[in-house]
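Example: Response regulator.
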Amino acid sequence: MIKVLIADNHPIVRMGIKQVLNSASDFEVIEDVSTTSELFEKLEKVTPDVVMLEMDIPEINGIATLRKIKQEFPDIKVLIYSGQSEDVYALSTIRAGAFGYLSKTADLDYIISAVRKVSEGNMFITNELAQRLAFDEGTQKPRRFFRKLSTREVEVLKLLASGKRNKDVALGLNLNEKTVSTYKARLMKKLNVDNLVDLLQQAKALELY
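Written out as structure tokens, the predicted fold is:
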């Protein structure tokens, strides 16, 4: 049996995923949690094969949570799922150590195949995403810039785009303000802008709002 823990703050989403997984004979949903503190409490007591982690789960953002799981429970595989732009976040989460990324707009069948693939230690992204990653490289769409950004830069940009000040970004990511300023300067250079307004426009184009 493939043991799964679902981490999402929406009860109806957890119930829906549980029903989909329970419809297959080789899955067992051993726990479901609504916050990151609950998640780490449960991981001290149970050992799932796969954690299905919602990107915007409360308390700690998904990428920071993913890093913590990788550090404290290295044998547990993480599948991130989200309503956020697949183009932007899939690469970022995989770079941070996720075994896969599933969009909430994906077909239900993908849930079973994604969790099964991740449990075997294989990478999962949808065919649609694989095709877009292959064919968008030559276009002028803003998201092509994203491939230049590190996972941490994406985190900083997302927080800036949500209206956070340098001080708040520093607190949220456990950095000092000077480091955040350095990231901001680096983001402006990589996204080819020279002021904060244009930087936030790029964030909007990258669907980080």
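Residues 13 and 112 are 15 Å apart (CA to CA).
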